[in-house]
Amino acid sequence: LKNARSSGKLRLQKWYTATAERDKKKMVRELMQIVLARKPKMCSFLEWRDLKIVYKRYASLYFCCAIEEQDNELITLEVIHRFVELLDKYFGSVCELDIIFNFEKAYFILDEFLMGGEIQDTSKKSVLKAIEQADLLQEEDESPRSVLEEMGLA
Amino acid sequence: MPAPIRLRELIRTIRTARTQAEEREMIQKECAAIRSSFREEDNTYRCRNVAKLLYMHMLGYPAHFGQLECLKLIASQKFTDKRIGYLGAMLLLDERQDVHLLMTNCIKNDLNHSTQYVQGLALCTLGCMGSSEMCRDLAGEVEKLLKTSNSYLRKKAALCAVHVIRKVPELMEMFLPATKNLLSEKNHGVLHTSVVLLTEMCERSPDMLAHFRKLVPQLVRILKNLIMSGYSPEHDVSGISDPFLQVRILRLLRILGKGDDDSSEAMNDILAQVATNTETSKNVGNAILYETVLTIMDIKSESGLRVLAINILGRFLLNNDKNIRYVALTSLLKTVQTDHNAVQRHRSTIVDCLKDLDVSIKRRAMELSFALVNGNNIRGMMKELLYFLDSCDPEFKADCASGVFLAAEKYAPSKRWHIDTIMRVLTTAGSYVRDDSVPNLIQLITNSVEMHAYTVQRLYKALLDDISQQPLVQVASWCIGEYGDLLISGQCEEEEPIQVTEDEVLDVLEGLLVSNLSSPVTRGYSLTAIMKLSTRFSSVNRIKKVVSIYGSSIDVELQQRAVEYNALFKKYDHMRPALLERMPIMEKTASNGPTEIVQTNGEAEPSVVEPKHPPPVGQPASQGNDLLDLLGGNDVPVIPTTMPTKPASAGGELLDLLGDLSLGGPAPAPPAPASQPPFLLDGLSSQPLFNDIAAAGIPPMTAYNKNGLKIDFTFERANPNPNVAVITIHASNSTEADMTDFVFQAAVPKTFQLQLLSPSSNVVPALNQGTVTQVIRVLNQQKQQLRMRIKLTYIHKGSAVQDLAEVNNFPPQSWQ
Q1: pLDDT tens column, B606-633
Q2: What ipTM was predicted for this assembly?
Q3: What is the rounded CA–CA span in Å between residue B700 and residue B722?
Q4: Which of B69, B598, B659, B731 is least enclosed by beta carbons within 10 angstroms?
Q5: What is the pTM assigned to this prediction?
Q6: Domain limits of chain B?
Q7: Among B8, B123, B192, whose Cβ lies nearest the Cβ of A101?
Q8: By CA distance, what is A103's nearest residue in B?
Q9: Nearest residue on chain B to A79, judged by CA atoms?
Q10: Do B60 and A25 touch (CB under 8 A)?
């Protein structure tokens, strides 16, 4: 699972294993408590249940990743960083509000970058280009429609 | 109906809510609007509504009524709809809802869509949340896409295949042909995802693993190119070329090289190269090094490479970055067993990490420190570890205490050091030690005979300071009970003896009985200790008083004990000294053999460890003193009934005779590497008293038959020690009057060891109406002919009778 959150509010969450809604909520609550309690000087890894949690703070947002025993914590930090870079490039100096108001776009970026918890493409350029193209497709879809709607002819 | 508000607007509105209740109200209002909109089957705004629903779902509100709407969106032709629809499916649906299967057809169509971005959406959704049924249905499509030349789709198909294999492992085979030329791709995305796919397949199937070993040279080449090639802006991260791919390749190499000499050899060079050339100034470089180290340690690498790896970890330990230190400690912990010496070199750095502020680092450092303790460094290490125990968080104390005990046991340089160390643990972290440490400690103390005075003195002083830590109090009361006489006598070699009076000691013990801090178990200990002191101290009356008070205690355990002790004072006073004798040294090992017999009288001599072996039987001796001479000339008659060998209770409880006084039972076994029997006297407890283990058909014999008293011996061989013969005596009385106060004693030649257990009763009923049985265990290490002298005393028809006899007619099988 992977989530981004701030001051106790969840902004994004992605689960790669099927979990019941109730359990998800419980886990998220637990994790939030643990991570928010960490002091700034502490290391970015902690053990939780049978998983390892890797987290990193960017301004007011915490990004957390739960990985398995055999996964490399240090490279996970890099994965988190890459995701933040992607958001940053896309939104232009991303801030928390961008993610709040454009959460669906943040998800699109995440889903273009990772699948099933693994990186799809290691090239920043490649991922951003794909998003760009998809956004264009979306616009092509929307523009003719909304004009008609506004004219009341839809 | 007015157009539903836009997503952004909704978000803005909700954020203005000042209270939870206000927010809930807004949400409910909007949900109602969305619901009616859904009911109207409005295509135009469905997308917007679902998006809003997803937002509210993220805030924690229920959104299940949107599930079907997501499916409708997915089926739409518009890309926007599909995008939100698939997102909704991933957020709201999973294999637990039956509804999800309806997606399968849509996904199938979209996998074959003309637009690659639509195909991408479908692959992504399937690869994130596809259920096994969906995977089964769609695996063929995925496999097709795995072979396409479109790298955008190929990379996604590879990861989707990973998910399919995870869900339905049997389908792995069908993807095999498609993997053939995956690694010859130039596109890093495809390369990365292909390596992930290959890794997944190799991890799941040994056949696949064997099959893919041939890829090692190719992987090595790719890795080499990454390192050697110049700057590539597209994949560069802080000066390193595609670290993500490097790490994945290293991981795959690890799996392929494990246990295989050839593959391991083929990768030796590249691993060395990566290890030495990678930049360590940034986290990225260290991430690669970390993966490299893990790989080196797992495959069959040459020793030079392994030392290189450990040195890298050593350098990590000195890194300013906490994360790096943490990772280093974790890895060192994994390798400490196999490369112990190499890790030892970094011991001082590891010990320094005990002082780190971070909890995770401290825990790792503690585990590693314990793994590194050995005979050479025990003193220094223990100092550090005890200091750590003092200052660490409670969550660590139990584990640390256990670790200290184990290490001390294995490597203690001297008994005094050992006892001091244990005292230190008990006083600083006493309430956190595991329950089974109390009996272990007691066993240790009894074994260090020369330290008894020192130990009891220190424990007494500790009690004066603090009675809140139960394990400490329990051990201390036990010791005071046993060695109280030493305490009073003011003899102590190891340190300045303290002056303590009997009353002061009794004050302390009584204090424990009444204190709120004492647990019931502790109270039991202290009552028994007080009782024991009745034979060691002279203030018997005081003790009698205390004991009788507790005869009416609410605590059942205490009451029972007090009542029995009272009975001891009143009716069995003659037995009291012997019953309350010093405990023998307890053997700890689970192996065979009875304990050594320790015979002391009620007074002081702590140095009596050796069993008093009787001299050879052939000595002439006068009747009356014969038996006693054989037993080494003790003034006090040896009362055989007191050999306290029953191990049933975990607290070294002395008076097992008075019933099964089991203390708060044994705790779960300690987790550490060295195994310890949970019970002290495991070896004995496994040999129940009256049982016919492989009787080996030794015929019974009559040992004595005189004046109507007949004593028969029956034999068993004791398991597990074949040198121990278990003899049961059966005493029967053919006269008309009972024989009361019947006591049976025995002595054997020097080369044997004898142990006498309690008799079934001390009345031999008249006219053969019953027998008294008693068990004798004889250890015959040198396999000499068994001979025995017996002494019998009883009261018959009002007069006391005493007789001595020699038993020589043991059947050969009993001692061969």
Answers
A1: 333 333 333 333 333 333 333 433 333 3
A2: 0.90
A3: 18
A4: B659
A5: 0.67
A6: 435-580, 701-814
A7: B8
A8: B55
A9: B244
A10: yes
